[in-house]
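FORM 12-B: Structure-to-Sequence Request
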């Protein structure tokens, strides 16, 4: 025990550090020793940028693992985006993270580990996009034969745009729209994708004409230089474009993913211009040739029809031959018509003369004289006929008068009297029956009315209350204080004045007759 106390009293000469001081010293030592390093490894555990924009993952090889981080400000400048399993060469500095006592690599730039890695990454991306159907031939569109406006996505300062403009101007001058973009670097892919989308978003008939064809062009270069045209955003923009797209990236031996998605691939930018428009001179020559062929064909056709018409005309008879028979028939008909008219006129004249000779005044006077003789004869017979008719009617009347005696009238009157007596008796019996039936029905209705009448209720001791307007009162709440009321009993009416108090209904209600007598004596309603 004594030895322990002695040891505690001795002072140590070792410097004491706090945890923060020691962590800061280690951080400074590591950063000074490894301030700029290049590390080769495979990306593992990459899940994309964090919500803050930073990316955290691990670099590994077959023996060790190294934590790595890419800050948000660096992510926007990278030419290649990190992907799970990609082998890279990262440049940055080594530092420590005191919160968990670990060291990590802060990456400021990286590139795939060699052309083989880029090729493998490019092949993997090509297969994935092909599996989505972005390279299918069914998605590709036909190029317009003669576009009115051509959009070009390329650098505005390079030789590519000058070659395209010069070639189009030589072949078929038209309107060219240039969308300037960077064709190399970290932002080239995003700019090219935005340019293709922007051309598609232009409205037809707007201030800026919408292109009928888009050319994406760039000169030749290495795989790293052309990597922006392998960007997934560019491929999707080309595949989704409603405007046909010609890819003219690099030389004839250079291939990028945009070549698979484009509607046509051109070996060079100049070849893209030749695909885009026809040769105006050749079109004019072709049109001239077709026009000459058309004129020659029309001339030959006209000559053929002219010869055919001449042959048909020679086969037709002449006008005199066609009209000879008709003319002869006309002349014969005309001559016969004149002779027929003269003959008919003579015949009518002879007939009229014959009738004129037969027509004389004696033909009119003779019927009149005949009628006059008939009238005179009838006039002489008229008095005798009247006398004969009168005698015949008098004889008929006397015969009828002799037949008409009093006996038939007496028999008719007696028969009518019997019939009338029978009918009178039957009418009296029927009337008596109807009267008795109606009287019985009337008595039944009187009994029913008396049974249903409120007067029977009053006879049993009830009372009807009327207000000053002579309307029946059905509830006590309808009565106001001082209101004049009329009580209707079975034997008469009496007037009362209402009190303000309302007595609630009791359990044992007194008889109605007693209440009525009380109200009648007091003259006040409670």
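FORM 12-B RESPONSE
SEQUENCE OUT:
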């Amino acid at each position: 025990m004594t030895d322990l106390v002695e040891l505690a009293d001795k002072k140590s000469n070792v410097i004491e550090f706090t945890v923060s001081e020691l962590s800061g010293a280690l951080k400074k030592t590591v950063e000074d020793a490894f301030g700029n390093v290049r590390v080769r490894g495979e990306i593992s555990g990459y899940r994309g940028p964090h919500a803050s924009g930073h990316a955290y993952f691990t670099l590994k090889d077959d023996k060790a693992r190294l934590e790595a981080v890419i800050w948000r400000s660096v992510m926007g400048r990278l030419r290649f985006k990190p992907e799970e399993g990609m082998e890279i060469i990262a440049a940055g500095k080594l530092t420590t993270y005191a919160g968990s006592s670990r060291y990590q690599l802060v990456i400021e730039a990286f590139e795939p580990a060699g052309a083989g890695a880029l090729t493998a990454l490019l092949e993997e991306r090509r297969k994935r996009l092909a599996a989505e159907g972005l390279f299918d031939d069914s998605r590709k569109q036909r190029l317009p034969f003669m576009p009115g406006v051509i959009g070009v996505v390329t650098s505005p300062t390079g030789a590519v745009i000058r070659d395209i403009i010069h070639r189009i101007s030589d072949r078929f001058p038209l309107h060219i729209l240039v969308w300037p973009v960077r064709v190399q670097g970290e932002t080239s892919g995003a700019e090219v994708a935005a340019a293709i989308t922007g051309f598609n978003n232009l409205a037809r008939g707007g201030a800026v004409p919408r292109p009928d064809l888009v050319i994406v062009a760039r000169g030749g270069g290495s795989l790293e230089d052309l990597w922006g045209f392998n960007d997934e955003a560019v491929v999707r923009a080309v595949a989704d474009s409603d405007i046909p797209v010609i890819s003219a990236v690099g030389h004839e031996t250079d291939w990028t993913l945009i070549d698979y998605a484009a509607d046509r691939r051109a070996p060079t930018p100049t070849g893209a211009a030749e695909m885009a428009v026809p040769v105006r001179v050749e079109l004019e020559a072709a049109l001239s040739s077709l026009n000459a062929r058309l004129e020659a064909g029309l001339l030959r056709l006209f000559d053929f029809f002219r010869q055919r018409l001449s042959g048909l005309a020679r086969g037709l008879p002449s006008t005199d031959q066609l009209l000879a028979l008709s003319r002869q028939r006309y002349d014969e008909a005309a001559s016969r018509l004149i002779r027929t008219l003269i003959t008919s006129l003579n015949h009518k004249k002879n007939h009229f003369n014959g009738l004129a000779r037969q027509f004389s005044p004696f033909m009119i006077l003779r019927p009149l004289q005949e009628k006059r003789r008939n009238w005179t004869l009838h006039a002489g017979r008229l008095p005798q006929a009247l006398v004969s008719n009168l005698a015949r009617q008098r004889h008929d009347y006397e015969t009828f008068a002799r037949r008409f005696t009093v006996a038939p009238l007496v028999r008719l009157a007696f028969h009518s009297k019997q019939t009338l007596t029978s009918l009178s008796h039957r009418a009296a019996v029927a009337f008596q029956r109807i009267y008795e039936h109606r009287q019985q029905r009337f008595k039944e209705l009187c009994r029913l009315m008396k049974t249903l009448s409120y007067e029977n209720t009053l006879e049993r001791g009830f009372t009807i209350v009327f207000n000053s307007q002579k309307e029946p009162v059905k509830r006590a709440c309808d009565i106001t204080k001082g209101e004049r009321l009329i009580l209707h009993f079975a034997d008469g009416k009496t007037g009362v004045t209402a009190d303000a108090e309302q007595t609630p209904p009791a359990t044992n209600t007194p008889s109605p007759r007693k209440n009525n007598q009380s109200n009648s004596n007091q003259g006040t309603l409670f």
